[in-house]
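Dear colleagues,

As part of the handover before I leave the project, I'm documenting each prediction I ran so the next person doesn't have to rerun anything. This entry is a single chain, and its sequence is reproduced below.
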Amino acid sequence: MPGALLVWANEHRLPPHAPLLFSRKHNAEGGLKAISRVQAWTILKSASEHADVRVLALRASQHGAVGEPAPAHPHLFRHARVRQIVRSTRSLPLAQRQAGWSRLLLAYLSIGDEEARALMREVPE
């Protein structure tokens, strides 16, 4: 997804350091004004509910217990990026460093059954 966002930004001729998620308002210098964390959360939650996209909750919330389907949220992308780093590089220390974690949070690095089977097929006998 980060690559797709950068392609989109280039196609729309955004300046190199412009925010990717911006409002119609401008900042004090006249440039694009980034939307707030709350606005990003609201937009993503609304889109998630509208499209009926759910993720399994890692902690209890107003949407239900741990493991219950819940709306997507912006922080999900951070952990998706960490999973992508682990899957492509097989380097847990790199993922930890890129995420800025003082310790590796293995709960976010789990894999699905199909991916586990595919990886096991690659392991020599």
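The first strand starts at residue 22 and ends at 26. Residues 74-125 form one domain.

All the best with the project,
I.
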